[in-house]
Amino acid sequence: MTLMGWLQIGLMVAAVALVVKPLGIYMARVFTGERTFLTPVLSPVETLFYGISGVDRKREQGWLGYTFAMLAFAIAGFVTLYLILRFQDLLPLNPQGFAGVAPDLAFNTAVSFVTNTNWQSYAGESTMSNFSQMAGLAVHNFVSGATGIALAMALTRAFMRSGAETVGNFWVDLTRATLYILLPIAILITIAFMALGLPQTLDGSVTVTTLEGAQQTLAIGPIASQEAIKQLGTNGGGFLNANAAHPFENPNIISNFINIFAMLAVGASLVYSFGEMVKNRRQGWAILSVMGILLLTGICFIYWAETYGNPILSSLGLDPSMGNMEGKEVRFGQAATALYAGVTTGVSDGGVNGMHGSFTGLGGLVPMFLIQLGEILPGGVGSGLYGMLVFAVLAVFVAGLMVGRTPELLGKKIEAREMKYAMLAVLVLPLSILGFTALSAVLPFAVSSIGTGGPHGLSEILYAFTSATGNNGSAFGGLSANTPWFNTTLGIAMLLGRFAYVVPVMAIAGSLVTKTKVPASTGTFPTDRPLFVGLLIGIILILGGLQFFPALALGPIVEHFLMLAGQTF
Amino acid sequence: MLQSIRPAIAMTALFTLLLGLAYPLAMTGIGQTAFPAAANGSLIVREGVAVGSALVGQNFSEPRYFWPRPSAAGAGYDGMASSGSNLGPTSQKLKDRTAETVAALRDSGISAPLPADAATASGSGLDPDISPAYARLQVARVAAARALPDDRVAQLVEQSVETPLFGFLGEERVNVLKLNLALDALASSPAN
Questions:
Q1: Which of A89, A137, A395, B56 could make an SS bond with A539 (beta carbons 3.0 to 4.6 A apart)?
Q2: How far is A88 from chain B (nearest CA, A)?
Q3: Contact criterion met (CB < 8 Å) for A253 and B169
């Protein structure tokens, strides 16, 4: 660990802290329907969208109507994407002449991109045509992110309104999130990326003659435009197999900085928007500090573990001073890789600039653990905010139990109904992650997909279902997951992680929005103070983290000790 | 649910047109106009022949060239099969592969402890860079193969070291392809 490394991490924190307020206020204006500087340009496009779709922007929906609209949109997106992938051989912009995608892989991939997961059982450069990438996958990079933002805004309105029935109009929120937030920022990032060296062409590949006289064919394509929204919408699905470790997705330290910044910007700023919209900015800052404290702790831990290195390789004559370099790029080194790994799992991105599966035991434990906490640090765009609010509901409930008073959050009484829904939501993660992992660890045809045996093998499976259920998308890549078993079960895990989670969350929104706001009294537990920050951190670690500890002990923790003992498999 | 069907289908179609076609095509237009070199892969052309991308590593195995890191991309630096090894830290395969690489480097005349990048595969399999320490360890071999004085090659290595931006962003590194191109240029220019 070096001073330079810490400065890189510090600079990122500072950059995000600076953008949170202006972007947060801008987004709050977008979702309260106020004019913004982009309104003159985008308003006609918006009106056109509503006109063709038959949407009355003034008509709001209750929580059920909102949820149904979200589900209908997801189904339409899934079917379209599935068909594009299956029939890409008949569609244009297929310079390499790739065949249609196999049914189980097309199912897995379509679910993956519709749920904002971007788990990839395929290698982009040898599977997907440019049309599938652009008109299929990248579209969902936008709209699945926009769906997350919309859901978070619906829940936010439940706290804003008093004794109301409706939580907003899904179609309006979806359209505004895409047009006013994701698209303009993605255009700026794409231009920056192209200036920094990312390819942007409709060609599929280019061939060069190396200095030693061999032919080297390089996969290229419309990479910059896809990389921009892949990061901004916390999707993470690489155009190329090696993701942001590939020099064409992430050629230098500046593109790497923008990559990481883009993952954090919208998710963190939405928390500020929340504070702004519920008229309690301190609440926004309190939640942001919970996210910041936990995320930075995770990043430091990865940085430390990876710098420590792998004693098995040192014993063969490698100088340990560079740390564990297997699966890492020289241009990023330990600090920028640890920062990327922490952020990509703290949010629900899943892009990587180094291979998590080749991290040391403890270095690989942290990314997995950050996903298991629910990806709320600051989380995927929108999904991080509503995930964190579920934990906030649980935290005030626990605090209420301690003093024997009905808990309140921002003037809304939290009662049995909200608690039941909150528990339903948080139980989805362990059910899917541990359930599927346990099954896969005993089924012979699943175990045969393992790349590295011993405890790392369990970690590979555990990470896969953690990533899928958490809608993250990163992997311990040693697992050969492109099999009917993993494509299907991981697909189900992704669906559970997204929809079985958001339906109870929307039910909470529906229940809270009808309640009348009660004014704060001296007995009200303030949720915007350091005491609440500490309590919330505790609840997240105990409730979110502890249930996974036994599985983590058998995988990465055992692996850590075996690595120190020099044992291999 | 029924009244959601029309907007669901219409919005999917509209977003596909806007985000899936208009956006990437417009960006491609801007890229091809404003940044044509980068947009097409940052190719390096020598005497009319594209010899590689400035951003992507390539295989070097002859003693007269500086060698890159081990690669897990296809048979090594396959630009159509980017990949890390994805081997876990306790993998026997990883240990064997590393031991093999270390032995080969020892055979090439390097006796000092090896920098970690010299015997580990990168995440992409296409890492264009090596650490300056690894480049310095290869100077003697390259100089001998080219019958050049050691300090001339060493000087070239030092000139090729790229430093962190603003002194702290990123790592010290040497782009192997650019270093080898400089080396070839040195050999073909009159001795000085």
A1: A395
A2: 14
A3: yes
- Asked if residue A120 lies in contact with residue A112, where contact means CB atoms within 8 angstroms, the answer is yes
B173: which strand partners? Answer: B162
> Distance between CA atoms of A554 and A566, rounded to whole angstroms?
17
For residue B167, the chain A residues in CB contact (below 8 A) are 4
Residue A47 contacts residue A172 (beta carbons within 8 Å)? no
The minimum CA-CA distance between A391 and chain B, rounded to whole Å, is 30
Whole-angstrom Cα distance, residue B51 to residue A486?
Answer: 41
pLDDT at B190: 52
Model confidence band, residue B192 (pLDDT cutoffs 50, 70, 90) = very low
Q: Which among A197, A245, A454 is the nearest to B124, CB-wise?
A: A245
Domain containing residue A268: 3-281
User: Burial level of B186, CB count in 10 A (0-12/13-18/19+)?
Assistant: middle
Q: pTM of the full predicted structure?
A: 0.97
**What is the chain B residue with the closest CA to A136?**
B20
- Determine whether the interchain pair A332/B171 forms a contact, defined as Cβ–Cβ distance below 8 Å: yes
Please list the ranges in chain A whose pLDDT falls under 50. none
H-helix or E-strand spanning residue A206: strand A205-209
Please give the structure tokens belonging to residue A51: 């006109």
Contacts of residue A209, Cβ cutoff 8 Å, sequence gap at least 6? A215, A216, B49, B50, B51
ipTM for the assembly: 0.96
Domain ranges of chain B: 2-36, 41-188
Contacts for B16 with CB less than 8 Å, ≥ 6 apart: A80, A135, A139
Q: Distances in Å between the alpha carbon of B47 and those of A116, A474, B86?
A: 46, 42, 38
How far is the first Cα of chain B from the last one, in angstroms, to the nearest whole number?
81
Average pLDDT over residues B148-155: 96
Task: Give the total number of structural domains in chain A.
Answer: 1
Over 50: is that where the pLDDT of B46 sits?
A: yes
CB A122: neighbour CB atoms within 10 A? 20
Cis, bond preceding A378 (omega within 30 deg of 0):
yes
CB neighbours of B22 closer than 8 A, spacing ≥ 6?
A: none
Cβ neighbours of A169 (radius 10 Å): 24
Answer for the pair A375, A469: CB distance below 8 angstroms, yes or no.
no
The answer to whether the CB atoms of B1 and A76 lie below 8 A apart is no
Give, in degrees to the nearest 5, the angle at Cα A254 between A251 and A256.
65
User: How many helices (H) and strands (E) would you count in chain A?
Assistant: 23, 5
pLDDT at B191 over 60: no
Establish if A54 belongs to a structural domain: yes
Residue ranges of the alpha helices (H) in A233-348?
A: 253-277, 281-308, 311-314, 333-346
- Report the residue of chain B nearest A143, measured CA to CA: B15
For residues B55-69, give the mean pLDDT: 97
What's the CA gap between A5 and A142, in Å, rounded?
Answer: 32
**For testing contact with chain B, the best of A330, A460, A561 (most B CBs within 10 A):** A330
Among A481-485, A543-547, B12-16, B152-156, whose mean pLDDT is lowest? A543-547
Q: Distance (Å) from the C-alpha of residue A394 to the closest C-alpha of chain B?
A: 31
Which chain B residues touch A83 with a CB distance below 8 Å? none
Q: If we measure between CA atoms, which residue out of B153, B100, B19, B50 comes closest to residue A80?
A: B19
Which residues in chain A have their CB less than 8 angstroms from residue B163's CB? none
